[in-house]
Amino acid sequence: MALSREEISARYGAALFGYCQDTNSLDTVYSELQVLKTAILDNPRLSEVLSSPVYSMEEKKQLLKNISADFSQEVQQFLELLLDYGRFAVLPDIVDQFNMRYNKLNNIAFGKVISAVKLDDEQLHKLGQAYAEKYDLKELKLTNQVDPSIIGGVILEVEDYIIDGSVKTKLKKIRAQLVENI
Fold this sequence. Notes:
By secondary structure, the chain is an alpha+beta fold. It is 60% helix and 14% strand.
């Protein structure tokens, strides 16, 4: 029975993460994988060529060698392994699995701030820093989504948690109390 893309990415991501923990190369490999994933997503043809049966294994290995020359030995070996086993097309998902483990180990979280107006980078950073301190995170990386219907305040969504400090929600609560007291 063939493995699904999710199963493949989970297994390979976990294996690479474990290997990097053993070799004390987590930070280096993490940085290199971010560069590699960006390159693959920006140039989808690269993954197609390395996954295609049209090109010989020698041609693929030479291309891979040229691409990965500046990467660490761990990343180079991992890319060769993916090529040998025909798993190169799954690389972005494998990187996501690796990142998930890396972020959990390093107590880094990601979230979204919904606001009535666009927040600048400094505001996002301060909000993320305050949340990170309150919930014992090393870092919280936030993105901003604008929704004028919340009127003011912010809604912070981090993983499974939602903190709703919007004016819209506060007005709904006041209205519910007024209706209840009538």
